[in-house]
Design brief:
single chain, mainly alpha, about 0% strand, about 60% helix
Length: about 140
């Protein structure tokens, strides 16, 4: 098997899948390091979003570029249902990933704060003994 000419290996079309893989992996590593010290929900939401985006950028989009997955933009489709199914998977991974990642970052940065927990309202009837706050009344 002969190697392609250097001009083909150095082209934009050859470098794009490599860039997508590197970007997806670096996004996952960056988010993992950012959320490493936190044990709350914003960190988990960020990591979940970055895992979705990492799967989309590192696996799905390079597979589209390589032609392993049928695209809905190809003129002659053998199986349009499969192409539409993969397109839906791509939409869910990428849009869901960016939404989840952005939501986690916004909560982590205190742009969307956690709602304050409500205090329990204790209703006492006249003549009933007071109950401690930690005791359940069922």
């Amino acid at each position: 098997m002969a190697l392609p000419p250097v001009s083909v290996l150095g082209s934009i079309d050859a470098a794009r899948p490599v860039f997508l893989i590197v970007m997806g992996i670096s996004l996952m590593i960056f988010t993992w390091r950012l959320a490493a010290g936190a044990a709350d929900w914003p960190a988990r939401i960020m990591v979940a979003g970055s895992l979705l985006l990492g799967a989309g950028y590192s696996v799905l989009l390079p597979a589209y570029e390589a032609g392993l997955i049928p695209s809905i933009h190809q003129p002659a489709l053998r199986d349009p249902a499969a192409a539409m199914g993969w397109h839906v998977v791509k939409l869910v991974l990428m849009n869901g990933g960016w939404f989840t990642f952005g939501l986690g970052v916004a909560i982590h940065a205190k742009i969307l704060p956690h709602p304050a927990p409500r205090k329990a309202v204790v209703v006492r009837h006249a003549g009933s003994p007071p109950t401690p706050a930690h005791e359940s009344i069922v």
